[in-house]
Write a structure and sequence with these properties.
Number of strands: 19
Helix content: 25-40%
Strand content: 25-35%
Distance between the termini: 133 Å
Strand order of the largest sheet: 8-16-15-9
Number of domains: 3
Low-confidence stretches: 19-47, 95-100
Order of helices and strands: HHHEEEEHEEHEHEHEEHEEHEEEEEEE
Radius of gyration: 53 Å
């Protein structure tokens, strides 16, 4: 359109120029032959009209340019509007982000209605977004979550609650471990707590959160029924540099660890540790009044440590015999020898179950603990008399008129 307008304008200008030129030439050629004024010719051409027409053409050109500009602007606006609509439609098709705050993970204020206490938990210490993915999913570090959950439970638990001990079965075995628990201890429903935190993080809801504690009343009631107390504990020291002996001691102790004895059930040491026999190593043993190398050295230290624990617990001792030579890890008169021909035997003479645990301490010691029902716990008095190679061990149990005696007669070492 611009080209047409310009073409028209040029044609007009050319016509005007031709007319004007011809008019001048005509006047010059006839100047001598006529008296007609020159301006007559200009009157015939009517220059005012030419200027008007030229001006109109210019106006038409300007209007055309402005019209083209207006049309171009309108076309640009239409394209922009169309692009915006396409972008809006594209945005509508995109999946929405998980959060409304650009994956921010903040701090939750936790509270407990029962105690009135509050706790500020920095959730980003256990939760995070996996930015390796295009739309990062919310993830939880299970180890960190367990650690911080335990800290939260400890914070809300009353520090002055009574602690009790109770036996807990170890998996599908017939062994038990002794657990320490506080009555009324705060325990969080971890699954519920985790889900609530994750849901709130996704929608950026950081309003105060009530901690979902488990109702412990029924749990505490069941634990109280099985509560146990420590009856006795006895420790002896061993030489950790003697690797064969140490290995035998550890094997025997761990085999006994977690033993439960029902009322009137008997414990036979050799039978109890028989599963470890194929793995026993060589160490010092007493044979013919001499310390010599032999298989199973160290088993007598385990039986001796257990004997003293049972002695101080009040359990019934059915059979015990001393070594032929005194040993270094207990006072004379307090040892219990075992061998292929001799066993150490005791019995649960209480109305309730008893539990035996073993532990190997960091300072080269082993310990046996005996637990039972609080009602069965007795005050025990133990003492020893004797000198040289003969000793008598005495035990007096609360409520019994019988004074028990255990004899030890040692021999002189052979050369």
């Amino acid at each position: 359109m611009k080209r047409n307008i310009l073409k028209t304008a040029l044609c007009v200008l050319a016509s005007v120029s031709t007319i004007f030129s011809n008019s001048i030439a005509f006047a010059d050629n006839n100047a001598e032959k006529t008296d007609t004024p020159v301006n007559t010719v200009y009157e015939d051409i009517k220059p005012d009209k030419v200027e008007t027409e030229f001006s109109n053409e210019n106006n038409n050109i300007q209007e055309g340019i402005e019209s083209n500009q207006k049309n171009a602007t309108t076309e640009k606006q239409l394209k922009e509007e169309s692009s915006e609509k396409k972008e809006d439609m594209s945005q509508a098709d995109k999946p929405k982000l998980e959060t409304v705050n650009n994956y921010f993970i903040g701090t939750f204020r936790l509270y407990d209605e029962q105690t009135g206490k509050i706790y500020d938990f920095q959730a980003n210490k256990a939760f995070t977004y996996d930015y390796k993915q295009k739309l990062p999913p919310l993830k939880v570090d299970e180890w960190s979550f367990d650690v911080f959950t335990a800290q939260i439970e400890d914070y809300f638990t009353n520090k002055h609650l009574k602690e009790i001990l109770y036996p807990q079965k170890i998996g599908n075995t017939n062994k038990y471990k002794i657990i320490t628990k506080k009555l009324g201890e705060k325990k969080i429903d971890k699954a519920k707590f985790k889900n609530e935190l994750m849901n709130r993080i996704r929608i950026a809801d950081y309003t105060p959160l009530k901690v979902p504690f488990i109702n412990n009343e029924q749990i505490d009631s069941n634990i109280l029924k099985n509560e146990v107390v420590l009856f006795s504990s006895y420790t002896t020291k061993y030489n950790a540099y003697d690797t064969g002996r140490t290995s035998n001691i550890v094997l025997a102790g761990e085999e006994i660890n977690g033993t439960k004895l029902a009322p009137n059930e008997q414990f036979k040491y050799n039978t109890r540790i028989s599963p470890i026999y194929p793995n026993l190593r060589t160490a010092k043993v007493i044979l013919n009044n001499k310390f010599v190398e032999g298989t199973g050295g160290g088993l007598c230290q385990v039986s001796t440590t257990l004997f003293n624990a049972t002695l101080e617990s009040g359990l019934q001792i059915d059979h015990r015999r001393c070594h032929t030579l005194p040993v270094h890890y207990v006072p004379r008169g307090r040892d219990a020898m075992v061998s292929d021909y001799n066993d150490f035997v005791f019995r649960n003479n209480f109305p309730h179950d008893i539990y035996i645990t073993y532990q190997r301490n960091a300072n080269d010691e082993i310990t046996f603990n005996i637990y039972g029902n609080r009602a069965d716990k007795k005050n025990i008095k133990i003492w020893t008399s004797g000198r040289g190679l003969s000793y008598v061990l005495y035990r007096a149990i609360e409520g019994s008129t019988v004074e028990e005696k255990f004899y030890s007669n040692y021999q002189t070492p052979s050369n």
